[in-house]
Specification:
ABC transporter transmembrane region fold, about 10% strand, about 575 residues, 6-stranded mixed beta sheet, single chain, 5-stranded parallel beta sheet, Rossmann fold, 15 strands
Length: about 575
């Protein structure tokens, strides 16, 4: 990709990010957004007024010093104290308003991203399809924060730079006067010199910063990959420890860290090159206006106060004109963060386009059954290495019927029931479910939120009313009587309980609140045969009205079901 194409790509994703985030100023949050914006601009103008006051004070004070006027020097000290107090108040106000705007804007964006990520099971589907939007949690938590914070800073910096340039250019033009060279008078020569000097430094920074943007993006991706790798080890700590995978994980993480360091070194190299311009500018920027004003001062056309005032105005104008160059690194950080956020939204856009009306005929269509039955019609499920389909064109599952999906490990049973649950849309056919029927999915590895055991049992229906005696009875039936004293104890139950206990607790959930439809995916894989027998017996006898679709391959399961359905596998020939 050429540099021009790369620039177009960056500008395009920057525009998409702006369109995404400007929704904060619309809808329910618009009042707060506009109020915070008004406060930020007001305090910004107050700070600019303080800067202008300091500039005029500089001329007043140094002229008083040059005249050795004690009264005016003392008055100047009093004035600067008052200006300092006003400036401090404005700075505090600006800090408060700016940070509150950043926090509220980030809150809005995070909620919007999380809502869309969780809508229609996108969070699950994005883990299956090939997409560049890896580590969505890091993009929502970190990249959204960085992008919003930097965008607020940039917006304020740009506004301040424009206002400062407009304000101080007039002062510099008037105070600097004209310079006569070889009989020719050059009016506003200090303004012209400031613009030329700023153009040179900005061009130098721009040329050095362009390659830096791509390296910062690569560095941000490597940081996210390291976080993902560490989280993966933490989430699978038991499995890794049991198989002795410590050394292998250490090698993997070391490779990830090495790649991160390599990308950081690339950033450091280009930052070092940019520092040549920055370092020289730090020395030259304060000196150049003094040198430019020296001829007029020596000739008596400028007082000492006017010279210092002109130098201060020159510095303000130069700082304003060089704003983009001085913030090149932060611009690169913003482009990288905003790109990662838009990558996530782009991935969800493509997913919705594929699954929406435009994708009719290429996805499994979910609909409403004309009665209380579950209807699977012409189901063909697409996988990366083939497809699977039901052994008959149409299957009707009546209310309360218990159906076992047959097949050995890896035969596609789990994929079929995920399609019924609405998690796997890839394929063809039609799945019709009863209108308003509550569907509960019981996976092989259940999920438990952080909280008390009661919270885990009632999840996700915390408002469900049930007596402690009923809960204790269910726990006793499921072989979890030892957990009854821990009903109000807060734990990380996913790591505190064994896999068998977790599966028992999953059965306890559905016994406490029987759903209309129960979809089960190997929910007894960690149980012994006797425990499996008892729990499946409870499922059959205590949930007579619940329709069950159960994917399992262990012996003895067929006795608890009314019938079995099979899958036909068609591999892709390569």
């Amino acid at each position: 990709m050429s540099e021009a194409d790369e620039d177009d790509r960056r500008s395009g994703r920057a525009r998409r990010f702006l369109r995404l985030t400007l929704g904060f100023w619309q809808g329910p949050t618009r009042t707060r957004a506009w109020l915070l914006t008004f406060l930020v601009i007001s305090f910004l103008l107050a700070n600019l007024g303080s800067a202008l006051a300091v500039n005029f004070w500089t001329k007043y004070f140094f002229d008083a010093l040059e005249r050795r006027d004690t009264d005016h020097v003392l008055l100047g000290i009093g004035l600067i104290a008052a200006i300092a107090l006003a400036s401090a108040a404005g700075s505090v106000g600006l800090l408060q308003a700016r940070m509150r705007l950043q926090v509220r804007w980030r809150q809005w964006l995070s909620r919007a991203l999380i809502s869309r990520w969780l809508t229609n099971r996108h969070f699950y589907q994005l883990t299956i399809i090939q997409t560049a939007a890896d580590n969505p949690e890091a993009r929502i938590a970190d990249d959204a924060r960085i992008a919003i914070e930097l965008m607020v800073d940039f917006s304020l910096g740009l506004i301040n730079a424009l206002l400062a340039a407009a304000s101080f250019i007039g002062i510099l033009w008037v105070v600097g006067g004209s310079l006569t060279v070889m009989g020719f008078a050059i009016p506003g020569y200090m303004v012209i010199a400031c613009v030329i000097y700023s153009a040179i430094t900005t061009l130098g920074m721009y040329l050095l910063a362009r390659p830096l943007v791509r390296r910062v993006e690569q560095k941000a991706a490597a940081e996210a990959q390291l976080r993902y790798g560490l989280t993966r080890v933490k989430d699978n700590a038991d499995s890794i420890a049991l198989v002795g995978g410590d050394d292998d994980e250490r090698v993997r993480l070391d490779v990830t860290i090495s790649e991160l360091v390599e990308r950081w070194l690339g950033v450091i190299v280009w930052q070092g090159r940019m520092m040549w311009v920055n370092g020289a500018n730090l020395v030259l920027a304060p000196v150049i206006p003094l040198l430019l004003g020296t001829p007029n001062y020596l000739s008596g056309e400028m007082t000492l106060g006017s010279l210092i005032q002109a130098a201060t105005a020159f510095a303000q104008v130069q700082l304003a004109l060089n704003w983009l160059a001085d913030n090149a690194m932060r611009v690169a950080d913003w482009l990288a963060a905003s790109h990662r956020v838009t990558q996530l939204t782009d991935a969800m856009d493509r997913l919705e386009e594929r699954l929406g009306p435009a994708g009719l005929g290429t996805t499994i269509q979910l609909g409403t059954s004309p009665d209380d039955c579950i209807i699977l019609r012409d189901i063909n499920i697409a996988l990366h290495d083939g497809d699977l389909r039901l052994d008959c064109a149409e299957i009707v599952i009546t209310p309360g019927e218990k159906v076992l999906v047959e097949g050995g490990p890896g035969s596609g049973k789990s994929t079929l029931i995920r399609a019924v649950a609405g998690l796997w849309p890839w394929g063809r056919g039609e799945i019709l479910l009863p209108a308003g029927a509550e569907t509960v999915f019981m996976p092989q590895r259940p999920y438990f939120p952080i909280g008390s055991l009661r919270v885990s049992l009632l999840y996700p229906h915390q408002d469900h009313e049930i007596t402690d005696d009923a809960i204790c009875d269910v726990l006793l039936r499921c072989g979890l009587e030892h957990l009854i004293p821990s009903l109000e104890t807060t734990e990380h139950w996913s790591s505190h309980l064994s896999s068998g206990e977790q599966q028992r607790l999953s059965f306890a959930r559905v016994l406490i609140r029987p759903p209309a439809i129960l979809i089960m995916d190997e929910p007894t894989s960690s149980l012994d045969e006797l425990s499996q027998f008892r729990l499946m017996e409870y499922m059959r006898d205590m949930l007579p009205s619940t329709t069950v679709i159960h994917a399992g391959h262990r012996a003895g399961l067929d006795r608890f079901h009314d019938r079995q359905i099979g899958l036909v596998w068609n591999a892709i020939c390569r």
